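User: Second chain of the day. Same drill as before.
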Amino acid sequence: MAPLGFLKHLKGYYSKTEDLPVLSTRSAAGLSIIFTLLYVLPFYLSPITRPSPTLSRDAPSVIRARIRFVTIACAISTLVTIRTISIYARVPLTEIFRLLGWYPISIFDIARCLLLTALLFLGPLFEKGIVEGGWREWIRGRALYNSLSNWIGWRNYIAGPITEEHIFRSLLIPLHLLTSLTPTHILFLTPLYFGIAHIHHFYEFHLTHPRTPLLPALLRSLFQFTYTTLFGWYASFLFLRTRSLWAVVLVHAFCNWCGLPRVWGKVEAGEMIGPIGRGKGSGRANEATVQVADGRLGIGWTVAYYVLLVAGAVAFRLGLWVLTDSARKLASLGV
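Assistant: Same format as last time:
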């Protein structure tokens, strides 16, 4: 696997030998560590961003302050990255913006990445939309409005996806592509920074839950590191295949909204799905419904969920390469 002509073209600005790395691997790794620390450390250096048993990370004041800090971190990291590439690769600013995935914006690539991701979450979408009746809110646009009407929503679906994908995909991957590392190594290496950046939640959880035993807290953090790294691999794959920052940002926001898929247990709903029949003489719906008030559903709904979950996973695997094939790709990843 070797970089495509676009990256060879960038390296060609630097040397007559295009295979000669523009940046050392040590330099790329050092900058990645600095950017990661710059992103995370301010959360705990300031009393207005550091949670405690009496101050939750979900408090609006904490969220607002953290968004300010990560915005500054993104700005500094971006300037350093652009300056580094311009000095060592000697390329125009417009070429750097292309390398970072800022433009051109391909609506087609964005739509295909979202479709691919939706296939993976086919079961959860069925549960949210059909079983829980959320499709009504989706059509009215109320779901989006409700999600973004508070600071937790802004953090989870706007600030978090934009700043994290900007740092860990748009900046770190191009820096590593200018080294001697192959795209395969980059695909599996750079998401580790993303996973490590979430380990701080262990310390955060310990601050807000001081009475929780150490082992459960460690297992919780290990689990979080695992699924954030897995997502990082997927997002890196999409970025390498499409060179679209906006595609991975929207995929990140979508995954945050869906949450982790249910892989065990029965599906339940929180509202009445609809009447079976009419009550005699009253003209009103009979009390018997598909779903009773305590959220219990027939086994058929659970079976349908898991069938869709498996079918979606199979469709995701079949469409992984087809739906991410783009002429704008940063690197050629062999099947």
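Confidence is low (pLDDT under 50) at residues 1-5, 11-17, 271-293.

User: Great, on to the next one.
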